[in-house]
Design a protein that fits this description.
Blueprint lengths: L1 H7 L2 H8 L1 H10 L7 H5 L9 H12 L5 H12 L1 H6 L4 H8 L8 H14 L2 H30 L2 H12 L8 H34 L1
Length: 209
């Protein structure tokens, strides 16, 4: 699974080389590459209903570079450019569209297109951009976790949670327990912000190395 996820880091850089407009649209939608995960894991055998197409792809992949399934994924996304750009630029819509492969795809043309993409943008050239893509996604993921942690530990969020707790039977135990909860909340606030800040600093350090 980890190896497949690493291979998918090549998908967006390839699309960017071939069609920057489509790449930018998909980036804004934050669709990611999860929609293509099943494609690579099963070499499209799980998502294609035509047995002849599955066999054709297996022969193609066995005779080519290990990253060729990613180039075919890029070819499929590029082929569906008009459909993608016609959708709302939002992750659920784009993911739902791309995760379902149409049955009428011109598979032989897409195989040829994948081969052309491989020649134009070989893995040796795309490796650096794939690494940068991974670092960017990793950095954004840590940043989102930092924002969520910070929000949950904000004083107004803590007080709101305390008020909610006071409305339950557990919150009716008296002021002594409430005082203890406040102390724990203050400690969590300090510790949470400190830990989140450290995570962001570590991420920044990895990104600039």
């Amino acid at each position: 699974m980890d190896r497949t996820k690493h291979m998918l880091n090549y998908l967006f850089p390839i699309i960017n080389k071939a069609n920057p407009q489509l790449h930018d649209f998909m980036q804004r939608s934050e669709v990611g590459t999860v929609f293509a995960l099943a494609w690579l894991i099963t070499w499209y055998g799980h998502v294609l209903n035509d047995f002849r197409s599955v066999v054709r792809l297996y022969d193609f992949f066995l005779a080519c570079h290990p990253l060729m399934p990613v180039y075919l994924a890029a070819a499929i996304v590029l082929h569906r450019e008009k459909e993608v750009l016609a959708e709302e630029c939002d992750m659920p819509y784009i993911h739902s569209l791309l995760s379902k492969i149409p049955e009428d795809l011109p598979m032989e043309q897409l195989v040829i297109k994948a081969g052309d993409l491989f020649v134009q943008y070989p893995p040796s050239v795309m490796a650096k951009e794939a690494k940068l893509h991974y670092e960017k996604i990793h950095s954004m993921s840590n940043h989102n976790k930092f924002e969520l942690t910070t929000y949950n530990q904000r004083p107004d969020s803590v007080l709101k949670q305390l008020k909610l707790n006071h409305g339950t039977p557990e919150g009716a135990l008296g002021s002594k327990k409430s005082s203890r909860i406040v102390k724990v909340a203050v400690w969590a606030l300090s510790a949470g912000i400190g830990a989140a800040a450290l995570a962001v600093l570590n991420t920044a350090g990895e990104f600039w190395q």
